[in-house]
């Protein structure tokens, strides 16, 4: 019985840590948004994602997304060569981690990419 508990605990730890990683990345972008103004965030995301600030703002509003969700949806779409709208639609019924796994997106690449975004926005200057 003790061995079963250890095995189950190890399984849960191994599966939970990667699942939490994507939420960590979304939180990192949200934290950055709290210390930056909206225009700075939109400009940084625009440059990083190759999507205009106006479109990003419209996507946030029409899909009721925060900056972290907006970033992650675009990052997944780009990495999976998928449509942004499809990823957002999937996020309404699936966990982000499920979408990432189903699309075979490299989680480490998302983490690295969000670090690059964070540096770019922090280095761009003005904050709140």
List keywords for this structure.
single chain, 128 residues, mainly alpha, 7 helices, 80% helix
Compact overview of the structure:
By secondary structure, this protein is an all-alpha fold. It contains 7 helices and no strands.
Give the secondary structure arrangement, pairings included:
Layout: H1 2-34, H2 38-49, H3 53-63, H4 67-80, H5 84-91, H6 96-102, H7 107-123
Shape: globular
The portion of residues forming beta strands comes to under 5%
Q: What is the count of distinct domains?
A: 1
Q: What can be said about the biggest beta sheet?
A: none
How many helices in DSSP terms? 7
Mean pLDDT across every amino acid position: 84
Structural class: mainly alpha
The parts where pLDDT drops under 50 for at least 5 residues are 7-20
Distance between the termini: 55 Å
Please give the share of residues in helix.
over 70%
**Helix-strand sequence:** HHHHHHH
Rg is 16 Å
